[in-house]
What does this fold into?
Amino acid sequence: MLTRSEIDALFRPDLPEPEHWERTYPPRDLPAGALVTRFAPSPTGFMHIGGIYVAMIARDVARRSGGSYFVRVEDTDQARGVEGAMEQFDRAFEYFSIQPTEGEGTGAYGPYRQSQRADLYLTFVRHLLRQGQAYLCFATREELAEMAARQQAAKVPTGYYGRWATWRDAPAEQVRAALAEDRPYVVRFRSPGRPGVRMRYVDQIRGPIEADENRNDVVILKASDQALPLPTYHFAHVVDDHLMRVNLVIRADEWISSVPVHHQLSAALGFEPFSYAHIAPLLKQEGGSKRKLSKRKDPEASVDYYIEAGYPVEAVLYYLRGLANGRLAELPLAEALTAPIRIEECGVSGALIDLPKLDHISADVIVGLSGDEILTEVTRWASTYDPELVELIDAERDLARRALAIEREGVDNPRKDLKKWSEFRRIYGYFFTRLAPTPVLEGPLASIDPAVVRGMMGEFAASYQHLDDPQEWFNQIRELAARHGFAGSQKEFKANPGRYHGSIREPSQIIRIALTGSTRSPDLFQVARALGREETVRRVSLLA
It folds into this structure.
């Protein structure tokens, strides 16, 4: 083992002692029972909707307990950093209203990015080296790969442990010689784990858990030849959660297998063990089975999918809260968004992301909004994703209000066709003159004599009356159809098909296509009323 002075020579001479950091980050002055939680994303990739799920839970339980919730960016793996990831984090936190209750400029426990906390980690790495609970390892990547191959051939667990840990008990002279040669090294934790010994802890969601002690001498400080040697996740997590005074670590269940390592590191550093709550993953139905929602395979795994599609925030949060605690899915929206999420009610098996169900919830949310509220939300979304739509709405806001009112206002069963803001253009775009499609008659309608269509549409445009009564308004079409050789009903047409061009249905559909570009639309009378007389006549005239 190296002497204390030799160990200290590996570090900056003015590096503080552990006591300095304990004084800098004292226990928080919070009421009894207050929880301090964190969400710790890594910018090595874009955010998964599961991250929002975990962050939402962490924020809710901390806030309701009178505690604090913060975001700590775990950016120690800088070689794998993805450009734009940090901006996406900020965008997601703002969109889903899960901003931290403390952070840079508002919290006393920062910095809140691990890359800016290097001195803290180095202090505690040095401390473990001094205590003999960590050591320098000069094994090269090639040597480690060869060792792993030999372990696989011997059918033993891979890892750096026991007789395979070649630098664990290396003589001090050998370490000094490697240092003199300026060979790069990592710092490894000297695991006290023993074969066959089990450790136990209580997960706040899953209850008592038992696992083998960790025997692997994990790396706690990355290669010394880096410009800024940074810790691994395992070590940084333990140091940060202790000094930032986190008392409930809420994280994805993929980290359950790491708990034995984290408990050992906490004990070696003299920290109180953490309380953990491991959240089950979000799943996707695939055939007759379920699997984890994958960022690589599933577009809906990305947070940006929901933002770009324009799902109302309330709908997504309501849905996610219902996945976290089933009772919340049974409550009305407003109540569900304010009721507490309870950690003990989170399930131990994964929750299924069901987009049709989310669409249904979203439609229910939107149908409860006024026309002006919808236009405000659509405009906010479109300012980023569809600027032309913003111009159209601003120029013809009254028209947009009239369009939204069709079969929504003053009815017992309002239309629920709008499920997300990105659908506004597709569903309501034809109301705007610039987006109105060119009318084209297809299918059976295309077989009607073009001269009959032109004559009928020309007369309709010339004689059109913009009436207030829907029955009187429709009588215009009925009388027009009769004058141009169409039966007044389908029954009448079927009784004598050779006498007519068709039934009243065909002229109605031709006018519908002229006004909307489609054979399917809301009530035709209300569409014409929303468009106004001038625009109605102009569109019908296109087929004359």
Summary: The longest helix spans residues 49-64. The mean pLDDT is 94. Residues 443-541 form a domain with the Arc Repressor Mutant, subunit A fold (CATH 1.10.10.350).
